[in-house]
Amino acid sequence: MRIELRHCLLLFSLLVSTRGIGQEPIDPTSATDAMHRAIDFFRTEVSSHGGYVFRVSADLSLREGEEKVGDSTAWIEPPATPAVGQAYLDAYTLTGDSVALAAAKETAKALLQGQMISGGWSESIEFEPETRKRFAYRVDSPDVGKRRNFTTFDDDKTQSAIRFLMRLDAAIEQQDAAIHEAVMYALDGVLRSQYANGAWPQRYSGEADYVQVPQRSASYPENWTREFPNQKYTTYYTLNDSTLVDLIATLIEAGDVYADEKYLDAARRGGDFLLLAQMPQPQPGWAQQYDDQMHPAWARKFEPPAITGGESQAAMRMLLMLYRRTADRRYIEAVKTALDYYQTCVRADGKLARFYELETNRPLYFTKQYELTYSDTDMPTHYGFIVDSSLDKIASELEELAKLPVDQLWKPSLAKPPKPSTKLATAAATLIGSLDSRGAWVEPGNMKSHQDSNVTTIIDSKTFIKNLRMLATYIASTR
User: What is the CA radius of gyration of the chain?
Assistant: First the structure.
């Protein structure tokens, strides 16, 4: 029987080979060898103490996350450390490969080196001993002292770390006590930092003296300054960059993984805040952040008090998810009201402005000198002042949900093994052929924080993640 199966696999690899485009036939063993080469190179040459950054130069001499970093720093925001760890874990889940699992565990251990006493993660992890002394890392000392102790929820940093560690904890059946304890501690921090009204700040220092706030609905301020006030905004109720939505999603998953209702309760409170934060007519959407009066507020110099066409779409999708999980019609009714409004906001190009002026609903933009304007002709390029619209998809999901009986709203999805296909084999062969002699996927590109270095070829974590998953999917499809 084993001989027959081996022959079938060999026949399959020949049938889906890509000879027509100059590629040699590939079999699962060759694909696995290539996957191991890619993982080994990324672990030994690209990582810093098991952590990762956004990209490195092809010669490995330069590194960057959101900013320039040295070889003793790892970055948190995807596609850096947690995202790479998740790709290793996905490869293991697909293939059962022990090399991929070892890489995932190594990345998890790196994350544990950067967990803050406040519960989550900051922007980066510093591994150089003297530099580490400035940060309140749990593994170094239980006392904060004068060390920096900020957990940040911005840009899916802490949330992505929790999700990866949580999924790894489940995959290894909680057999690593340090990983399991770190997840529990991080989730406790998320619960601790939630305001009484269900919102979260952008970042959290472990102090709980400001979480008791009134239940107040959003409203328009009597007036607001069009001049950037340059004031602290990190304690505001934050939807910006999908901060709150990512936290709710993480808690829903935690409730499923650990069968603990307290995480689902906190997720529902987050959803209830979205209801509070929905602005009244004539603009029943959401702002990026709110002050303690529940008025839309300034954050950075290019993020004014406004109704957002960006984060609001993520808010609507999350409300639909919460409706699936709770059957609470308040969530779906809020989406109906918001959709009617946002469909009047679509630009001539089918997209949405990131910002709409309070009450007038005129699209707001910035000039390259960061002056508010109604014109989109002189915008900075580092930020998305115009965003894609997914309103049609949201409307379709809303229509589908409205027709479903309550008992059919939520069914856990079971992962199906990938099916073999010529397209998948072709993609795998191309990926294997594009690995260099080191096991690296090198591509044209520059480095934003190293513009003076004339870098023209890079190794990008985003590309590695995509390619590793594709290769693992091909291997899994041959079984």
Answer: 24
- Decide: 413 and 452 in contact? Cβ < 8 Å: no
Q: ∠ CA 415-107-131 to the nearest 5 degrees?
A: 150
Cis peptide before 444 (omega within 30 of 0): no
How far from 235 is each of 209, 213, 217, 250, 272, CA to CA, in Å?
A: 12, 12, 18, 20, 19
How far is the C-alpha of 123 from the C-alpha of 80, rounded, in Å? 10
Question: In whole angstroms, what is the distance from residue 468 CA to residue 460 CA?
Answer: 12
Contact between 239 and 288 (Cβ < 8 Å)? yes
117 in Cβ contact with 145 (< 8 Å): no
Question: Residue 356: which H helix or E strand, with range?
Answer: strand 355-356
Specify the 3-state DSSP secondary structure of 360: coil
SS3 84: helix
Residue type, 283: Q
Cis peptide before 417 (omega within 30 of 0): no
Distance CA 252, CA 325 (A): 9
Residue 214: pLDDT band with limits 50, 70, 90: confident
Backbone dihedral angles phi then psi of residue 471, each to the nearest 5 degrees: -65, -45
For residues 321 and 255, what is the distance between their CA atoms, to the nearest angstrom? 14
Please name the residue that has the structure tokens 């009047």.
Answer: 344
Yes or no: say if 189 and 204 are a contact pair by the CB < 8 Å rule.
yes
* Residues found in the chain: 479
Which residue is associated with the tokens 């974590």? 461
| Cβ burial, residue 348 (10 Å; 0-12/13-18/19+) | exposed
> What distance in Å separates the CA atoms of residue 154 and residue 159, rounded to the nearest whole number?
9
Residue 68 has pLDDT above 60, yes or no: yes
Buried b (16+ CB within 10 A) or exposed e, 140-169: eeeeeeebebbbbbbbbbbbbbbbbbbbbb
| Block residue for tokens 């307290």 | 262
* Maximum separation of any 2 CA atoms in the chain, in Å: 78
125-139, 295-309, 416-430: the lowest-pLDDT one: 416-430
What token pair was written down for 336? 């109906």
Nearest 10 degrees: CA dihedral of 259, 240, 84, 473?
A: 70
3-state DSSP assignment of residue 338: helix
Tokens for 422, please give them.
């010529």
**Residue 25 binned pLDDT confidence (cut-offs 50, 70, 90):** low
Mean pLDDT in residue range 24-43: 91
Q: Which amino acid, residue 49?
A: H
Half-sphere exposure (Cβ direction) of 373: Cα atoms closer than 13 Å: 13
Q: Give me 16's structure tokens.
A: 């889906």
Sign of the dihedral defined by the CA atoms of residues 111, 112, 113, 116, in that order: positive
Tokens 């949900």 — which residue?
401
